[in-house]
Amino acid sequence: MRHKAFSTNMNTTKTLALTDLKRSDFAPDFRWGCSTSSYQIEGGIDQDGRGESIWDRFCQAPGKIRDGSSGAVACDHYHRWPQDLDLARSMGINAYRFSVAWPRIFPNGRGATANQKGLDFYSRLVDGMLERGIEPWVTLYHWDLPQALQDQGGWAERATVDAFVAYSDTVSRHLGDRVKHWITHNEPWCTAFHGYCEGVHAPGLKNFRTALQVCHNVLLSHGLAVPVIKANVSDARVGIALSLHPLKSASDSAQDIAATTRHDGLRNRWFLDPLHGRGYPADIWQLLGADAPQVQAGDLAAMATPTDFLGINYYFPETVAHAPGQGLLSTRVIESENVERTAFGWEVSPDGMVSLLGRVAHDYRPAEIYLTENGSTYDDVVTPDGDINDVARRRYLVRHLDAMREIVAKGIPVKGYFAWSLLDNFEWAEGYVRRFGLTHVDFKTQQRRLKASGKWYRAFLKGELEPAVLVAASIATYDEEV
């Protein structure tokens, strides 16, 4: 029965002694990297022919961004990328996941001719990675849709599917002689629901029916782009990155258990099922009624185009309760009590990652899985000496890598881990309030400083750890040895 995973206890208070976690616990060809995205780090939004994105427009609306900021400058990566790649190399990572800004390639979203200066920037970036021994992983869409396409309906319009495929064709032809790993979309759930249903992300719309059509069109664009990329790139490895969550019911009541199944249907299965040839979940489709997306002949077959890997972005579990008339399907996510949380309020649960990946491997049998994002935000403090002793983030990282070791030992085909993120950056609706980076960025001076978490990751990757690194007593209390 698929949903047995819901009863998994994801907050055990076991004693955790991590005295021997080391890189050699993993396969020699395991990918160790960091992830970033274009709008969050690049800046340079009006340079070299880049067009306006939906995030440029969204950030101009009062009250949309917590601190009133934007990604206009962000980490100034557009100009400082050599420094950032040097930083990545110094950490010892062997893979780097970044995204291409669609408006840099086609300022108006589509066209007969691409913006050569935009293509040249990413060509230099890829060459810089290869020169430093870092494998480039391209994400084609990480939420920065050209505003010109949004003016025509955005992802709710089927024409945007064709525009994405053409964009994917151009980028893969230009970079495919050097880039072999491709991710079509980052977190389609966020694209659709944060952007078109909840209104908290660009383009800021609030329509459930529209969001469901957006889901469909994004998944369709993925399926149609895969064979195009493979035709352009010899030995291409193509996948998609989904934001997935392990779920647990708020109680053992039949109502809460049924609510959890419904929530799972829209949060997880709505994406996993069609990508793996099962079509949309029948139980959810029936509940949607007239809100269900418009599906044309051949769409579901296209969505199920075989891929080489599944990317999973894991951050936290969710606890679900029955809530008549609330939420999208009469469900609501509640906050569990007595659990550890990040500064974002997200529950910390390495066990949840084990549960989630085990469920995906068992139910869908992907050939390879990559943790394409995993990270945490805390309120970093810079000491007078310029150090950032982010012991909570370091603890989070160590415990999740220990969970990764357990996952691999179980035979789950996880082949790589990408920490989110290389740099502190523009954190979408939170602006610069939330910091996820292993590297601290002073956004006034653009100075980079490796945090304690980044130094630990570097030591781990380079085999320079001391015999005793961390001892965590329980989810409530911690003792660290450094």
Low-confidence regions: 1-9, 11-19, 468-482
Task: Tell me the strand percentage band.
Answer: 15-25%
Distance between the termini: 45 Å
**How would you classify the helix and strand content by structural class?**
alpha/beta
Q: Looking at the chains present, what oligomeric state does this protein adopt?
A: single chain
| Major sheet: arrangement of strands | 2-3-4-5-6-8-11-12
Rg to the nearest angstrom? 21 Å
How can the largest sheet be summarized?
Answer: 8 strands, parallel, barrel
> Helical segment tally?
15
- Report the strand count: 16
Query: Helicity range of the residues?
Result: 25-40%
- Summed over residues and divided by their number, the pLDDT gives a mean of 93
| Mass-distribution shape | globular
Description:
With 482 residues, the chain is an alpha/beta fold. Helix content is 37%, strand content 16%. The chain has 15 helices and 16 strands. The chain has helices at 38-41, 54-60, 77-91, 102-105, 116-131, 147-150, 159-175, 188-196, 208-232, 254-275, 282-288, 299-303, 350-364, 391-409, 452-462, and strands at residues 16-18, 31-35, 95-99, 135-141, 181-186, 237-243, 247-249, 309-313, 318-322, 331-334, 369-373, 414-420, 439-442, 447-450, 470-472, 479-480. It has an eight-stranded parallel β-barrel with strand order 2-3-4-5-6-8-11-12, surrounded by four helices. Strand 9 and strand 10 form a beta hairpin. The termini are far apart. The model is unreliable at 1-9, 11-19 and 468-482 (pLDDT under 50).
